[in-house]
Specification:
2 domains
Amino acid sequence: MATEIDYRQVDGILAKYAKDKGTLIPIMQEVQNLYNYLPKAVLEYISQKTEIPLSEIYGVATFYSLFHLNPRGKYIIRCCQGTACHVRGGAGILDALEAQLGIKAGETTADGRFTLETVACLGACGLAPVMQIDEDTHGRMTPAKVPAVLTEYK
């Protein structure tokens, strides 16, 4: 599933920052918001237009965990593996998500609907175990609740 690039939108982002130095990160953030990841062709285009070496752009993209170089799902599932969640069965939630989705943590479903990630803490320890889908937090999870929660996003 190839991403269709609209270079006019990328040009609009670049024009917004054209007069400011040190704006690579905001440019990359806006591009990622547009495509939900940083397509290689767009990074090459940014390099060409800004005269920032592609190696420097990739260095930034790989240094910061907020940037993603591979396509991501429409919905991002974050499964907490922090101490409180671990003690209360977080590993079982992750297992249930992987089984239900047919993917492992760090992967995206073939239909592009879900990307599954693990995180060290979601900051909702009182609701452990917890998972988050985009901005929606689902607490006091059990493996049995996983299918019903995922159905809300289909």
